[in-house]
Amino acid sequence: MNIELVAAAEFAKSEARNYLSYGIIFGILIAMAFYGFFLFVSLKYRSYLYFILYTVSVGLWLFYVQGFAKVLFGQMPGFDQAMLWFWAGMFITWGTIFTISFLELQKTSRFLFYILAAALGKATQHAALVEMSLSFSCPAFQRTRHFMLQSESASISKPRACA
Q1: What does the alpha-carbon distance between residue 57 and residue 122 come to, in Å, rounded to a whole number?
Q2: Number of folded domains in the chain?
Q3: Rounded Cα–Cα distance for residues 95 and 87 (Å)
């Protein structure tokens, strides 16, 4: 593991460039979602709705992967990890459904349709198993789920990360 010391000004410039690049990426994803929405409204083709859901899921997954959710919502390690897996599952799901719908695989290529449907089922099964293993093995996730169900007036200690 390399550790490098940099001056505060250089670090600030580097962070500003990183935030600018993520701002551009999120801006492109938002523009793609709006473009898909206008296509959906004008053409009334259901595939574009799946495209919008895919684009939003990718954006939210990236939002959680890069840690921007922690800035907005605070430290909730179990919940952050669960949402990371949830949005990963969502963008795989909506991407697969978009592909099947847009290419009309059920009509044009039954073989590819069955392969993608099987992959979608396996991805859904894997996501469910990961969620269940998190909820049973990670006390932080259990407390976070408990915290989400409680009213804001309840005082619950902050969850810790799982080992």
Answers
A1: 19
A2: 1
A3: 12
